Amino acid sequence: MLITTVYDIKNQCNHVLHLKSEIQAYEAVINGEPEEKERSIKAELQISKVKIDGNWQYANGKLMAYFPKDSSCFLLKYGDVLLVNANLPLIESPKNPFEFNLKRFYGFKGITHRQFLKVYQYKFLKNEPPNVFIKFAINIRQQVDAIFTRYISTVRERNIASALILGIKNELDDEIQYAYSATGTMHVLAVSGLHVGIIYGLLVILTSFLLRFKHGNFIQSALLFVLIWLYALVTGLCPSVLRAVTMLSLVIASKLISKKSNVFNTLFVTVFLLLCINPFMIMEVGFQLSFMAVLGIVYLYPEIYHLIDIRNKALDWVWSITVMSISAQLATFPLGMLYFHQFPNLFLLSNLVVIPFAILIMYVGLGFMAFSWLPLVANGLGLMVEKMVWVLNQIILFIEKLPNSLWLGIHISVFETWLMYGIIIFMILLFVKQQFNYALATFILILFFCSLQIFKIYEWQNQKRIIVYNVNKGYGIDVINGRNAVFLSDSLLPSDKQKMQFHILNHRWASGVRNVNLNEKAVKTNFGKLYDANGFTIAHITKPFYNTFPKPLKLDYLIVSANSVKDLKWIAKAFIFNILILDGSNKNYITRKILNQAKQLGVQAHATAIDGAYVVGE
User: Fold this and answer.
1) Domains observed in the chain
2) DSSP letters of 175-205?
3) pTM higher than 0.85 for the full model?
4) What ranges in 401-435 are assigned the alpha helix state H?
5) Which of 273, 236, 278 is CA-nearest to residue 133?
6) Model confidence pLDDT, tens digit, residues 299-346
7) Cβ distance 318 to 364 under 8 Å?
């Protein structure tokens, strides 16, 4: 409780959130490795000073900054201290229902502001890393990544190898990321317990000869401890690796003092230690998935594995991987549905392929790094890694394209997630203990869960709703009737997967929409389109309009897009409407100008960029 209180921003008196006056400038240090995005360089900044009313004062806080791609931004690195001449914009709350909550996501990381900087707004002062160990780790990872770049020629295979071995995922292309996610194998691209476990197993075998010598147990344990932490340094001390290495360190320590370690105790001590360092880590999706996957494997694997006694070594190996996949999936799939709204139907098949490939690639990759100083050997091993990754990619892409490989569009609440875990726990207890009470509890929870789903389906089938989404530099409108929807949008939005996923699809899935029609029934006019949607008359102005009609058109709603209206007085003469809606495709200054005019004219107006999506109906 005390640690949580200390970490809570509300209790930090010098935090920038508590400053009343406007910030004119600030000094901050790059607090992590800058990440290259499609159009910018992304970096976390730790604020140290702020300028208010011409005076500098100490302050603290974090922000996520985006730098434009130019020659200077590529020189940015961990520990760079920058002077930024700009105000600090807060991260906004979601503007659409069920939209991903970026404010909450970053809030648990202590990041409260988000800023897109221009070249002239920031200036390099000095390089002063907050943590020399992190700087050392980042430098090592960058040097090893440079070796991958030198010896692995194809971009996609190089990026996959870097993700699998070093945990560098920011350069993965969208197609391959989607394929791994859809097949339930994304975990191999996030360096975590699986990777550390593979390396630990190899190191135990390689150092087993030390046990023959006096104090061999101590020497082996010390060497294992050093080597796994060295791997953690190579990965840049990423959180998922730190969790796994911390747990293994406790296992090594318990073996060293000749005590048989209880894996559950080790797991919970690891969690306790990590939460002591950062209590809000428990809210991170990666932490939750990692903890549940390990817990599932540790408890369920031996129970399921011993159900079948297989004497053939090859078949036993296949059964072992299958059981591991089932154990991890049983423990994590409710979280996957909650956060990612999907379930990989072919996870058994894909993991049966991916895990052996991951082991081979890891082993060859480690050899590749170890002998990178020998060009001839490095060329050969680099080529092997490249070809193995290529084969793995082709298999994953093939599985992803199989019919019904992914169940997409799932939406469950946090309460339903807990309910699903309750069902899983009581089913496991029923399987292990075989007592009537657990059967009864399982039946009651399943009945309650099914009742909730029936009620949701009834609501979905009887819903009628119109929603004008807030989409930056675009517009999208869903007319929902039951489980069907008509989607009205600009020509680019339906093909923009990122915008659709972020702004629109979550709401559709939560509304149970299954059929979407892009061919709207509308009357085309010289100003845009006229719709009759769910009993409402809607005019949608998408192009400049200055004419008036002999008689004003009577409407329920008037939607304005694409900066098509710059003066509301013309519109007030042509239409009689209840509410004016300005969507996100209008520029900010035009939106504010129209809102001011609406206030003067007594017109009820709603701007999605300011007020969020506009919803009609329930």
Assistant:
1) 2-130 (2.40.50), 136-408 (no CATH), 414-461 (no CATH), 465-617 (3.60.15)
2) HHHHHHHHTT-GGGGS-SHHHHHHHHHHHHH
3) yes
4) 414-433
5) 236
6) 998 889 888 888 888 888 889 989 999 999 999 999 999 999 999 999
7) no
